Amino acid sequence: MSVVSLDSKSFGPALARPGILLIHWGASWCAPSRTFGPGFEQVARRHPDVTFAKVDVDAQPELVEVLGVQALPALMVFRDGFLLLNHVGALLAPMLEDLIRQARALDMDDVRRKVAEYRASKVRVRVGLHAE
User: Fold this and answer.
1) Most C-beta atoms within 10 A of its C-beta, which of 9, 25, 70, 89?
2) For residues 64-97, b (16+ Cβ closer than 10 Å) or e, as one string?
3) Is residue 19 within 8 Å of 50, Cβ to Cβ?
4) Which CATH architecture has domain 4-106?
């Protein structure tokens, strides 16, 4: 699969799709971003079931602000809309392969259960703090 470019309109739908999404945040003026790109594209070709995307930070400042990207290159890994990794710095292809392996191995039903438990505990805390 080729690497797709994301913008403010396509970001939400890409994130909403089930499965693994890797996003490379970079810029043409950033040497480490340029170095990271070919390895990212190489790994993308080996994993057609994974969505590989890039965001040009100069063209998408609103996404940069909303997602809090502060350094380049940055890599975000999502699965089923859950952010699994927010990494700053270039990674080698074997590291990307390992991240994909780890993302695939996650039991997403367990992740959803734990998130629901966490959210429920936060609601109880808030209610307890505001009770009279």
Assistant:
1) 25
2) beebebeebbbbbbbbbeeebeeeeebbeeeebe
3) yes
4) 3-Layer(aba) Sandwich (3.40)
Q: What is the pLDDT of residue 49?
A: 95
CA distances, 1 to each of 40, 45, 95 (Å): 11, 5, 19
Task: Give the alpha-carbon dihedral of 11, 17, 22, 25, to 10 degrees.
Answer: 0
pLDDT given at position 121: 83
Structure tokens at 100: 């994909």
Crossing angle for the helix pair 93-105 and 31-46, nearest 10 degrees? 50
**What span, in angstroms and rounded, lies between the C-alpha atoms of 10 and 68?**
18
Q: What are 8's two structure tokens?
A: 């403010």
Q: Which of 91, 81, 79, 82 is nearest to 26 (CA)?
A: 91
Provide the whole-model pTM. Answer: 0.87
100 CB-contact burial (10 Å; exposed 0-12 / middle 13-18 / buried 19+): buried
